[in-house]
Please model this.
Amino acid sequence: MVRTTCPYCGVGCGVVATPDGQGGAAIQGDAGHPANRGRLCSKGAALGETLSLEDRLLHPEIDGRRVSWDMALDTVANGLRDTIERHGPDAVAFYVSGQLLTEDYYVANKLIKGFLGTANIDTNSRLCMASSVAGHKRAFGSDTVPGLYEDFELADLVVLVGSNLAWCHPVLFQRLEAAKRARPAMKIVVIDPRRTETCDIADLHLALKPGSDVALFNGLLAELAHRGLTNKRFVERHTVGLDDALIAARASGIDTCAVPPTEVALFFDWFASREKVVTLYSQGVNQSSAGVDKVNALINCHLLTGRIGRPGMGPFSITGQPNAMGGREVGALSNTLAAHMEFGAPDVDRVGRFWKAARMATRPGLKAVDLFEAVRSGRIKAVWIMATNPVASMPNADAVREALRNCDLSIVSEAIRATDTVDACRIRLPALAWAEKDGTVTNSERGISRQRPFLPAPGEARQDWWILSQVAQRLGYGEAFGWTGVADIFREHAALSSFENEGRRDFDLGTKANLSDAEYEQLEPFVWGQTKDKRFFANGGFFHSDGRARFIATASRAPVNAPDEGRPLILNTGRVRDQWHTMTRTGKSARLAGHRPEPTLELHPTDAALRGLADGDIAEVTSSWGRSVLRFHVSEAVRAGEAFAPMHWTAQVSRAGRINAAVNPAVDPISGQPELKHTPVEIRRLDMRWHGTILARRPVMLPEISYWARMRGAGHYAYLVAGVQSLDAARRALSAAVRAANPGPWLDGDAGLGAVISDGRVEALMSLGEARDATTRDRFAPFMAIDRLTVDQRNELLHGEAVSDRGGEICACFGVSCGAVENAIACGAGSLDAVGAATQAGTNCGSCRPEIRALLRAARLKQAA
Ligand code: SF4
Model:
């Protein structure tokens, strides 16, 4: 039994893994971990299904050929050396990831900033929370998250801004849900253009116009001051800049938010009348060309009222990734230095002396969007990507692919062989995956936890710090990179955090700098901070040189790219409940594929009708940057004029489903964070002549068709397909592809069904027709689980009507379909508990409870009508 940490979201839940001795492990929540106290969401609970070595990169490769580690490392080191000698240090860049452990992150940052002489290292956390970092620094003088998770439970009002907590941070959502159940007087306000599942527990949902958050919080600031709620003692002693902030706030009109005035008034009343207020915000705030101003506009309201750093109050930025905070601590953003230090005197000199740096970077490097643009234009000639998939996740993603394909030296360290980015890079270095890595991560409340390996390293895969250190040694920096293990690196990281600190910097792990190896191994989760209760700023103590916080005057401004006649809709992107980032891990779980199996696009009924789009159609999204083809759904959760698409699908699982190919690369001018939630687009229906489903035991190399999406089933792959060529031609081409990968006798059945059945076992089946049948996958998947069909089963498959009660999975833990829950409700289950008793749905991880409640509400409305 090994205690470790979940590799997905920024909640940072503790996990207990019990290896089965055959390469797998049973996974449970760690009851002793303070973040989750035993809870796990659907993704965490399915971690055991993602451990297979399928799709893993297990050996170093150069130009598609397997090579030895020595050759790969020599090639990388020589390539970096040559590039620097010929073009200077700024011709080199690293693009790293919130998936790296802190120790890996530390080594990458030390190598490039201290020894290669450039700060051209950025992390994919730039896409997630760079605006929060910049907002914190402007307001507090440091990138400090003031509060703790327990503040949500202690608050009388929790304001969730741009956060679908129910799906993106489910265990925190469950903690909040439980707190509200225990204390119904607690109010929850959701501020989000979309009506997300988080609204399920909200007392008020403000569906504001995208990009108008600054106007709303400026309005709140002016109103709080008008009502005499300024905490004069706090403001006078601990802040500067209120007058200017109020002038800007009063000049800002809240009518741009397009929210009914009565709802705005109610929100202002609740904020004004409750002392214990937490404002939790996430990507809806950060991923914006005005992200930093949004952050400061909401922090201003907490500074005005002095509601910060005390139990149950404060602004709280929640990060998307498991170690985004660790990346901030080691300084992996291109504009920061290690240990929360900054470019400029005296920090550059201080870090340089501590590292005994050979060539210390002295100025900030390029931020993610600019970094890949520099790769594309040839200014950067060598780029090393670690544990991230920018060809799928960056905005204007096709340009990133082109940049990598044309780069002189493109290197990727990656655990997974089949990713869009690995495909585009020349040198591929096999890295360890979650179950094999050793180190620490920091969650959104500054909680540091150990991540411990519980499976052996497969093939020749190595941990990222080792790969980086080997390259450093080949470049002649052996002494500075001579660690023997992760405990060594952690001690150095902790020592740097306290080096010449004396309370001037928030981040100080000095008490951990002398941990023995055994103490490091046994390290219990802990939250770092300078006070006994680990919160910051209740009594001032900000990190600007005068010790005061700054109010920031924020003016509301429109997003960079406005919709126009040709692109009249605003595309918003986000996440679904059961997938993580680019699906390299969650995509391996058949259970998790049940909830949202395809890349989808949602549009309001009015806009759908205008475009002749109906549920289940195939739709094309086009923008000035690219296109994507997705399954269409009508949804009243999005406002008219807006569209929503999840960001998870890559070319590996849906050739044209990468939504980021269409997303605009506009960025916030201060943080450089891309505006992933606001792209002007047009959407049109694609006229498909046929639709179909393929289930196959072995992956099928599909011919060129208009639309396909691949997902895992139990023991098979499932493909949903559609196209514009003739049905007969499609049938010929697809059956040939299916049979090439799944040989055996082909049998034709009724209604466009064909199957390869060998020794009584279905190797593959394909159903094509002019009309779409959304139930085919669920109806036929049970036949793939049968080892030898009986005669009746074979007849039922080929000629009968296989039945399914499914229609979309709702509960991933127990595989309960939407249809089964609806049946239970129709049979009298009138509450969450009753549905749970009848079907088991919602009784384990709880991630599906908002959707079950929505079905209960819909049934009640139907009954009342
Ligand atoms: Fe993992 Fe879910 Fe916990 Fe996030 S909430 S850390 S995804 S178990």
The chain has a mean pLDDT of 95. The radius of gyration is 27 Å. The pocket of iron/sulfur cluster is lined by residues 6, 8-9, 11-13, 36, 40-41, 43-44, 169-171 (CB under 6 Å).
